[in-house]
Sequence to fold (301 residues):
Amino acid sequence: MKWKKLGRLYSADPIHPKLLSHAANPLPILLADDVFRIFFSGRDAENKSSVGFVDIDIVTKKIINVSDRPVFEYGPAGSYYSHGVSIGNGYEVEGEKYILFMGWHFPVGQHWRGEIGRLKLNSDYSLTLDGESPMMPLNDQDPLSLSYPCVIRDVDGLYQMWYGSTATWDAGNGEMLHTLCRATSIDGKEWQRQGLAIPFELGPAQAFSHPTVLGNLREGYQMWFSYRGNSGPKYRIGYATSVDGSTWVSQNNNAGIDMSESGWDSEMIAYPSVFRHKDQIFMLYTGNSYGKTGFGLAIFE
Fold:
């Protein structure tokens, strides 16, 4: 397996007080021909994240348009997304299009936490919140924090979700244990949690985030994700395969992409978003400092 890097597409320039830095969690939505609207999570001076976008021709790498303000902002005090909105992926239910996100909340005197919410992608590409409560809240099975969901619909109509869940904030080696779990749904809104999906290894690979999945029940599944161990805070991209979407085999040494020797993605690569376009497979991913240096594009060879 090999990904060919095509370079940085967007460098996360300041465009609004709530989009001063970062362009993390890039999510492509096709507009026309080779032009994609790429939603991303940017940050304000307090590190609270809102959603912006940039329209890019992924063949010519030309930037067509950049949002001059957030298209969706973090919520009011006390809401489950009061301190940030980090994008997951998009999917469709009965003709309606949605984008999932991780909502950040910092309760007073407590550890921060995340829960999973849903935005409606309207016909004019605006975003509206789909309900004031999280679509997937914390519960006894996932009690600490949730993150970055990815949903696809199988050929038999079943929706499958893979998402991050914190098992402990310190696994005894100074790093959290944040695993990737699975849930299923008939209607794409009410979810049955199925437990751990991706195997972890304390030390080398124990903090996972932002899965992105290709495949279905006929072809099998491929997943790329961010992961790190306890030796430092810098993510890289991992890889796993599955026959049914439930049981996965980790193949992190076969992800086909790694940090560059120098430049904007030389210290970290994270938050992959893999998508098909015109019989080719592409990956958007962020670089150093959790997307502070922007995001780039790679093509599967």
